[in-house]
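Notes continue from the previous slide.

Worked example: a multi-chain complex. Inputs as given:
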Amino acid sequence: MIAVWIIIGIVAFLLVLFIAIYNSLVGRRNEVKNSWAQIDVQLKRRHDLIPNLVETVKGYMKHERETLEAVTNARNLAQQVASSGAGVRAKAEGELSSALSRLLAVVENYPDLKANQNFLALQEELTSTENKISFSRQYYNDSVLRYNNQTQMFPSNIIANMTGFKASEFFEVTVATEKEAPKVSFTQ
Amino acid sequence: MWEQIRSNRIRSVMLVVGLGTVLVLLGYFLGLYFFGSSIGGLVIALAVWAIMSLFAYFQGDGLLLTMSGARKINRDDHPRLYNVVEEMKIASGLEKMPEIYIIDDPALNAFATGRDPNRAAVAITSGLLQKLNRDELQGVIGHEISHIKNRDVLLMAMCSVLLGTIVILAWYGSRFLILGGATGSRRKSSSGGGGQAQIIVLAVALVFMILAPIMAQLIYFAISRKREYLADASSALYTRYPEGLASALEKLGASTGQLKSANQATAPMYIINPFHKEGIKASDLSSTHPPISERIHILRAMAGAAFSDYDRAYRQIHQGGKGIMPATARATTGVVPLAAMKPKARLEEPDEVQRARETSDVMWRLNNYKAITCNCGTRLRVPPRFKEPKITCPHCGRTNLV
């Protein structure tokens, strides 16, 4: 009789453990999804800012047509691949970042721009969006690390394998220039 | 990060239980002293505590903000502040954007409030807002956001209610003792009973009444200080740039102004202790907060941005002492590199004069002043009380429509 109760106790304990681990796996996976969505929001925001920026800057920059076109093209390309995989996207966004930083580097030569309120506001938005992209990537990678740890560590890995939780990919920076947010400076 | 919050929660719960025990013991001895039975004292103690907790729970958030005269701002009022808060919200993984308030006060300080992360707010004084550059502001906001994320606000509110109850009970207890306490003890001595045992109980009660508030305060400060270290470490982790917070703390520490609207109970919510003496530097006088100079030293000694780096830096400064971060917290984050050092003042950033103008513009607008730019270039500020349809420019004499 006692043996039966012990077995029931063990089974109940295992069941509770299973439920707890399963739920925390689901929670972690959702966190990964949510933080990916956050990166998405910020990348979109950057795409939306660029036409405005180009429009504002165009009047001042008569001799920088190529630089401006490069930004617009990179932005359009990044927008086209917005629904593809992380690798392709990271590359396109990297191109966009470097085109942007080239543009903001030549801004130096146009001191009038610095007095333009519209441009200053856009610049603050752009700086902040770059920050938000890197912070959301930072948080995404942190949550991927937590999730992956749980899918690979004992004993949660058993349940993860049984119920089909697969490790997630990190969002790595593929283009060297993406590592640096565009630096804007007005040294004359 | 969750593991660290959990293990911190266990420690905090122990400290809160400690505070609660002090309260119960105080009630017990008060009852014994004045009513001859412990029950009455316990009931009074718990009733006072319950009323104060309810009040704090439902009114606390709004109260703190109202008391400090904070004004809520939107994105358009101050885009940079709003953006920085949003950046830290993303970095910390907070789900909801906290509300942002500005306190019109030249003193330098900031605080976070809200009993749960979904109805949180951060407030910053206008003085601090104009003093800090973007990186420093990020560090300070990161510190406040981590108070929200780690649920320090609720914890500190609970503790301050317990502390408040203990102080009130001990205060009234000792007043009754001086004024009319004799009745209680006379009743007890006339009822005969234990004699010597009675006197011992009375003596213990008396000593306890004096010691309880002091003990409670010490526990309170211990909790509060631990939370400050944790918030500093989290801010460094979020921003990956401890130098930002360190240099902000340097500015905060050098300030001499006192915040008008703070009080003892709300002190731990601020980024630095608002009660440093007028005219004396803010650093190293605080008790709810660790010394500012020490916080700066730790932040600057960090080799990476992880909790383990903060812990290592802490132990480096407290030679041979125990660390400040629980072991589980140190294990959760792997190797986290720091961001590259940034120049103090970047050219694209508004300098202090521009920031001062920007901040005062926000304050004028929040107070419903209208700004009119006259053709001669003068900016007129029209107070909301001004009802005339036209105003004459005092500079050039032109008439402007309001």
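Summary box: The longest helix of chain B spans residues 196-239. The first strand of chain B starts at residue 70 and ends at 73.
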